[in-house]
Amino acid sequence: MRIAIASTDKVNADHFGRARGFFVYQWEGNDPELVEYRETNINPEEKHQWAEGLSKLGDCEVIIAAQAGMNAKYGIKQAGLKLVEDEGTVEEVLERFVKHELFMANI
Q: How many independent structural domains does the chain possess?
C-alpha cells in the first residue's frame, strides 16, 4: 500500500490543503520504505488548494494529514482514498498508522 503524509517542513505532519509536499511510502507489511517526497505547486497565502495536493497522490491509498477541510475530505473520499488525521512528526504518524493497521489485522 502507498501512504502519503502531508508535510511542508519535511519534519511534521501538516494540514492537507496547505502542505507544500507529501512524503510517499510503500508499505507491504514490513517497515515502510520511503519512495519520494512530492512537492506541490501551491501558494501558502491562498485557501482551497486541496485539489493540487490530491492530483499528486493518485497512486496512493492512504493520506495522513494533521487536518483536512470539508471540501478536501469530500474530494479525498470521492477519489477512493482513506484519510487519517493525526498530529506529530512524519515518523510518529507513520509509526502510529502502521501499528494500528497491524493491530486491526489481528483482531
A: 1
Q: Which of 1, 8, 2 is nearest to 67 (CA)?
A: 8
Burial of residue 67, with CB atoms counted within 10 A of its CB: 0-12 exposed, 13-18 middle, 19 or more buried = middle
What mean pLDDT do residues 70-84 have?
96
Contacting residues for 81 by C-beta, under 8 A, at least 6 apart:
54, 57, 60, 61, 62, 63
pTM of this prediction exceeds 0.90: yes
* Grid cell 515502510 in the structure block, residue: 32
CATH of the domain at 91: 3.30.420.130
Q: By residue range, what is the domain housing residue 94?
A: 2-105
